[in-house]
Q: What sequence folds into this?
């Protein structure tokens, strides 16, 4: 095409694609370039602004490493990770939420009723519930992978002071589908903001905070794996999560109870002397398609 114009360039791009290319690739590339070109036309994007965009991508690439996933973080704070997640989550199961970059695979087994708090300070949080199917029946022997921040707001993978699997546990629930564990109440924390994504947040007048949460990955044969989080209803960042991870059914009340109400049969039974927090959270898995 010799007479490319700002009006026809999008259609010219589409005409350059091979007629035998994979249909889904065609669909995605056509829509991507359509929106990209419309974005430039709509904003009348200048050379300098386009250069800033390229510099942002180069800045992400420059700090990308095993421990730092700046492109994923960009997707998180732009809401794209959550949007993709919501587009493909089942409306019948518990809502899914972002995985984030801090999960460490291969955590040691945590028995039902086991403790992740160990010697860390602060009140005990007892989390318990049942893994259920969409009829409300318990799913026996499901696998629950749990992780969270330490009281200093850092995940084990960010903190030299913690063991590799600190505040990580892999639980196989019993025949009754029930899980229970004790831990500390997670704290709100900031996503990394010392790179190009931090620049975007500041340019938009946004903060880098996430409300406190427990992360779960729940797996059972015959069911869709669920990646989700649980949030306490009194967290100050619940309505401003910088990665858009909060869903109504994931917000729970952590109820304060006297030490005398701590149940039997758990690792910390008989050892809790102070009031503790209690959250009940049942997880519903939808069947595999
Ligand atoms: C997290 O919850 O661990 C997380 C999610 C997205 C970005 C950063 C952290
Ligand atoms: Fe997190």
A:
């Amino acid at each position: 095409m010799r007479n490319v114009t700002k009006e026809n360039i999008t259609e010219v791009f589409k005409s350059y694609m091979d007629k035998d290319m994979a249909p889904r690739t065609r669909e995605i590339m056509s829509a991507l370039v359509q929106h990209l070109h419309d974005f430039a036309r709509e904003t009348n994007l200048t050379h300098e602004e386009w250069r800033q965009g390229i510099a942002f991508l180069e800045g992400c690439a420059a700090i990308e490493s095993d421990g730092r996933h700046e492109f994923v973080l960009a997707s998180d704070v732009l809401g794209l990770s959550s949007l993709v997640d919501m587009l493909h989550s089942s409306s019948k199961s518990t809502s899914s939420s972002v995985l984030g970059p801090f999960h460490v695979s291969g955590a040691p087994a945590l028995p039902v009723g086991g403790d992740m708090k160990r010697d860390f300070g602060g009140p005990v949080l007892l989390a318990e519930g049942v893994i259920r199917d969409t009829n409300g029946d318990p799913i026996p022997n499901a696998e629950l992978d749990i992780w969270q921040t330490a009281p200093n707001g850092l995940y084990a993978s960010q903190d030299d002071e913690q063991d590799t699997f600190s505040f990580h546990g892999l639980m196989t629930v019993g025949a009754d589908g029930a899980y229970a564990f004790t831990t500390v109440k997670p704290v709100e924390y900031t996503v990394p903001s010392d790179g190009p994504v931090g620049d975007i947040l500041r340019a938009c007048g946004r903060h880098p905070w996430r409300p406190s949460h427990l992360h779960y990955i729940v797996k059972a044969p015959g069911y869709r794996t669920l990646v989700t989080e649980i949030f306490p209803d009194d967290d100050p960042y619940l309505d401003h999560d910088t990665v858009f991870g909060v869903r109504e059914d994931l917000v729970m009340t952590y109820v304060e109870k006297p030490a005398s109400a701590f149940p039997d049969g758990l690792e910390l039974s008989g050892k809790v002397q102070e009031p503790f927090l209690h959250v009940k959270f049942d997880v519903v898995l939808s069947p595999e398609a």
Summary: The chain has a mean pLDDT of 96. Residues 23-43 form the longest helix (21 residues). DSSP finds six helices and 13 strands in the chain. The chain has two domains: 9-45, 77-285.
